Amino acid sequence: MSEKKPTGKVLVAGAGISGIKAAIELAETGYQVLLTDASTQVGGILAKLDYQFPTDHCGMCRMLPMVGREYSSEYCMRKSLYHENIEILPFTEVVNIEGDAGNYKVELKKKARYVNPDVCNELGKCIEACPVEVDDEFNHGLTKRKAIYKSVPHNVPQLLLIDKQSCTECGECVNVCSTNAIDLNAQDEVESREVHSIILASGIKLYNLRDFEDAKSYAVSPDVVSSLAFERMLSGTGTYEDGMIKRPSDGKPAKKIAWIQCMGSRNRRQNRDYCSSVCCMFALKEAVLAKEKGGPDVETTIFYMDMRTFGKNFQRYKENAVEEHGVKLIRCRVQEVIRKPDGTLQVRYFDPLTNEFFFEYYDLVVLSTGQAPFEDHKKWAGLIHTDLDPAGLLTTEPYSKVKLAGKDGLFMCGSLMGLTDISEAMSSGIAAAGEATNFLTSLDVSRKFGDDTPEPKTNDRSAPKVAVLVCQCGEFAGAEGLDTKLLETELRKVKDVEAVHIVESMCSAEGEQEALEALKKSGCNRLLIGACQPYMYRRKLKDVARKAGFNSSLVQVFDILGVSRRGLHEDDKTAWTRRAIKEIKSDIASMKEKPALHVQSQPINETALVIGGGISGMQSALSLANRGIPVHLVEKSAELGGFAGNSIASTIDGLAPMEMAKDMKLRVFEHKKIDVHLNAQVEQTEGTLGSFESKIVYNGNGEETKPIYLHHGATIMATGGHEGKTDEYGYGQADNIMTQFEFKQGLESGEIDLSETENVVMIQCVGSREKGKREYCSRICCMWAMANALKIKEKNPDTRVFVLYRDVMTYGFLEQYYTKARLAGVIFVSYDLENRPEVEIVEGKPVVKFTESVLDRPLEVSPEYLILSTGVDPEPSNKDIAETFKVDLNRDGFFMEADSKWRPVEFQQMGTFLSGVAHSPMPLPDVIMQAEAAAQKTFTYLSGGEIQTARVTSSVKDALCVRCQRCIVVCPFEARSYNEMEHRIDIDPSACQGCGMCAVACRNNAAEVSGWSDRQLMSVIDEKLSDDIELSTT
Amino acid sequence: MDLQTEAVKDLWKDVDRLGDLLHCFNCSTCLSGCPASYGDPPLLVRNLARKVLYGLEEELFEEDTPWACVSCSKCEEMCPMDVKPFELILHIRQWQSTNDETRVPPSITEIYRRGYTQAVATNDELRAELGLKPLPTINKNEEQLKLFQEMLMKTPVVAANDYMFG
Q1: Which residues lie across from A608 on neighbouring strands?
Q2: Residue A712, strand partner residues
Q3: What class has domain B3-99?
Q4: Which of A308, A359, A855 to probe the B interface (max B CBs under 10 A)?
Q5: By mean pLDDT, which of A89-103, A129-143, A999-1013 is the weakest?
Q6: What is the DSSP string of B32-49?
Q7: B37 has a chain A CB within 8 A of its CB
Q8: In chain A, what residues touch B81 (CB-CB under 8 Å)?
Q9: Any idea which fold A953-1009 has?
Q10: Quick check: bond before A157 cis, omega within 30?
């Protein structure tokens, strides 16, 4: 890594969650990121979602890095994001892309905001003054905003802008603005930048009711809203108030709410033969939340076609919604909503359980509007000179979901691939960052880590001497009424304050130099800095302080305008200053008690261990090895390839897993950086992130070989899975009853001849999505059924094929195969658990009896083949591996990730990752994407040479500790363990996130978070409770 | 239902050559707003499509409900799979008539009796609530209805089957 090489630079176009995730991953790896978004905000769709399933809370901050926390200012992600390697440009559009791989020149159009964010003080006087009122897009028109406004109510800093379309240019805002921030004649600016690689992450738009073709039949009243608008009705920054979900028409509480699914999706008439993938879970979550937020008397009904609970734990969430929360599900797509004279909304539906029609009346109807036409895709295709696929999406390399076809250095992630849920957005963001990292590794570019000015030494025993530095913010602080003279005089009187310095503007180079000089001379060891927008400038200010000899942990930055302004009337100018003085004094009190905290660096063993030699494991191993990371690949069988790589020749979407695995095996065996261990298992492991030791035992051919010990810094679990077994529906009692996989193999080998076959019956969800059996959807069985059914029809169009299903799970663009199968004449018959098909063996042949669901009458078929979809089972060895590595399995036997939405490929246990079917059943392209993501996470940790622990971690005062071990139980990061040998509590500082749970749980004040001691907090409270200061002079 | 004996596999090709009905995924959109689904027996176009798909020839032939369709075309407009249910109904009517030229659809007796196949103007209360005048339908005017019936009696179909229109 020579100094002269340029730092690798990546443009991430789109700052929704997948773009943010890709940006964070790249920034953590040491690359510079330019993160743009065409809208005025970051966060994409998630900025509007206060609650996400399955926790029904917000969890966005969980995507932030767990190690090296010091590099990013960490706080609420819905407000914004700050990382020193990420430059964020909202309201910026990519208008031109030139050049090629490794050398892209992009033109960015920064759209005019008409309010200069560097000068604006966010007081919002202009908003009050503006006479124009229009619908607020953020709240989907449920509330109003002015022509000059804040686009997202909870963003920090509050970037104001003017909507020129509705602005009348009356000039009222300009008149009241005390900082001259408004320029009504501002122009868009085009700026040219050079980057090595580009990740497209501009996402997808959901249907707006205005643009929805069927609005005339459904959106017949203001009380019919889109699902995204309903999120705003649940939000405090939307219209939620007084524990009420308010009906938009009259503000009365909505007590009876219906959801109508598939609005604008699964619609051939509108040329959209695809499913939007997320709406089923979205509606379920909203229905559950509606009761929580609107009261237990709220009634919720979802009208659906197929309840697509295909993801990990989705099925369980649905069952819980129905059983615990009383969400009613009705399988009927209703034709229209009728507004009755009293304003209630009438829905007539056909109930398939009773075969009768019913009327129902609702206060509110939510339309589950899916993904809108792919407009952005056309724009990107034009910019990068490529063609779109028939569905209108950007084409990718075979097997990859993130690498754009034929375009080195260009990637995509998130909903640009087609609407994704949070988990997939995260995996794809990490995978895209991984692919970009792979690509950058091949170029002559370097990686950059934080400022390397060494941390000054401190003497913890020296008496506290506090310096206070206040930025005047040009003249604004004065203009806002802060009397800096008075402030200075008063602060000088405080005990232990040795220096007070007012700087005119810390943002300028002169200001920075002035501050540096003053601090060097001060002779203090603790520093308080008052400046505006501390979230943005904290890092920079701390760097200045460090250069002046202050330890970073003894420097505190506070928002000078915030402390003085908060809650006070603006005319009372001395009150502002008094408030500021009081706040600063309590900060000084805290500062005086604060110990110096040090970052510890731990050495890293850069070797990775990958468990499982299937396609997922091989992909992770190759990806890491290609980037120079040595890998041990451990496979328990005698062969690499796993289930898919050794037995599946083709998939419905034209992939050839066996062929792919053959090529991968060659590359794995030939790779100098990969050590393959066949017939091997991990029996024991010890250590933490960066330094593990694992015992590998071999058991091939009955010969016992000596165990070996491997040293590695991280582990990836890629144990895969296999087709489930069953004894239901006569399986095993007749030759012609087989699983989908067995039938597929029979067809491929030619053993099955269909020329005389009259009838074939397939039964889906055998032993699946059922309590006490496989309690999950295996995600791929519907596709297997479609593939086999289409094959049958192709070989013998006269064969009748019946597919008995519960919900057809052809989510996303897989829907096209369902349509193809129906067109080929395959007959789909739904059944439910109360009324399942029955199989009788008559003279060695199966006879299938089932209810024809549409005609509601019994049907009997004697098929030549009865094919069972038996789902996917996890590997039984997962249990031992989980125990060995101290990670968890879920109830179904799959590995349990750290967070089902925000951290899909990591374990809570630091340094351990997972990918592929070890996580949950998923199709091959998803397996590869996750494998790439797990490799990237591993690479970020292992390639830095060392790991910096956070400053704020927990500790144990051993003398006070009674070894009750309560802290171990409550620690959400498994950072605490009990040391049997030495009879004490151990803390893994790289795992600890400083959340303070242990300090709360500890009955003896033995657990403490450094920098948050009781003494420190008590002195702050004392100071806050003290009398207001007397002002002698002004 | 015994498919081996009852079913004519390729019936759909006879009835609906274009195969639009194969797209049907039984979502019930066509049913839930259908005015003729209020009838007794109700017109259930989704079920008709299914019978065509299975090839239940005899049963389909006996179906009178296709004749209850009031041609409002809502199903056609709203069907997400573009199955064209209304056209399917017309196809079924054609198919029934081609296979039996003497077939007299029962809906003609309904038309004879009350001027419409369906009981229209049943929403008088709703109309009143909305401040609308009652619909001036023919069945509310006995004199007109009588004239209408005399007129119908002069058509060849009704004249030849006058025993049905007592």
Answers
A1: A631, A714
A2: A692
A3: mainly alpha
A4: A855
A5: A999-1013
A6: HT-GGGGSSSPP-HHHHH
A7: yes
A8: 267-269, 819
A9: Alpha-Beta Plaits (3.30.70)
A10: yes
